[in-house]
Amino acid sequence: MNVRHAIITTSLGELTVVAQGDAIAGVYFPHHWHPPVAGSIGELVDEADDPVIADVHRQLDEFLTGERAAFDLETVTHGNVFEERVWALLNEIPYGETTTYGELAAQLGDPSLARKVGQAVGHNPISVIVPCHRVLGKDGKLTGYAGGLARKQALLDLEEPADVSAGKLF
């Protein structure tokens, strides 16, 4: 298991990208709410020498400039059974759409699990790629995001359909 990481610069700021073999295991913002455990991200490598990390950077840049709506990357996560179920649901949220913690809980069969769903979403280790930014609070309110609410809003604005954004008054 070849675990390593690199720091990449994006329009969202510097991100720590963690790779495990040929898969992405983490994308972390500075001051991430739930950073990886010390020593778990392997050695620091140069992105130019790591094709997996270079590909993540390329795809993230394409996504952040509106050239890409979906990622074509192998990912690996190491959550508990509940977290893995929630993260799988995150991957099903279409580009440009949002859901709520309560709606995800209902999909899991128990609407009372909304708070637990929120905790799992907050522990998503692969930010942006596993689109936890598409989850809103009750009544569509913008709520917590490991990268900060400004980044969450920027990602939602990026994905907003053109016909919706054209109708907004600034």
Structural commentary:
With 170 residues, the protein is α/β, with parallel strands linked by helices. Helices cover 33% and strands 16% of the residues. It contains 6 helices and 6 strands; from the N terminus they run ββββααβααβαα. The strands form 2 sheets. Strands 3-2-1-4 form a 4-stranded mixed beta sheet, with helices on one face. The radius of gyration is 16 Å and the shape is globular.
Describe the protein's topology.
Blueprint: E1 3-10, E2 13-20, E3 23-28, E4 43-44, H1 51-64, H2 81-90, E5 99-100, H3 101-107, H4 114-122, E6 135-136, H5 149-159, H6 162-166
Parallel strand pairs: 1-4, 5-6
Antiparallel strand pairs: 1-2, 2-3
How would you summarize this macromolecular structure in one to three sentences?
By secondary structure, the protein is of the alpha/beta class.
CATH architecture of the largest domain: Orthogonal Bundle
- List low-pLDDT spans: none
Task: Work out the oligomeric state of the chains in this entry.
Answer: single chain
CATH superfamily of the largest domain, called what?
Winged helix-like DNA-binding domain superfamily/Winged helix DNA-binding domain
Shape: globular
The span between the termini is 50 Å
Give the strand order of the largest sheet, numbering strands 1, 2, ... along the chain: 3-2-1-4
Order of helices and strands: EEEEHHEHHEHH
How many helices? The count is 6
The CATH topology assignment of the largest domain is Arc Repressor Mutant, subunit A
Q: Mind telling me the C-alpha Rg?
A: 16 Å
Report the top-level CATH class of the largest domain: Mainly Alpha
Structural class determined from secondary elements: alpha/beta
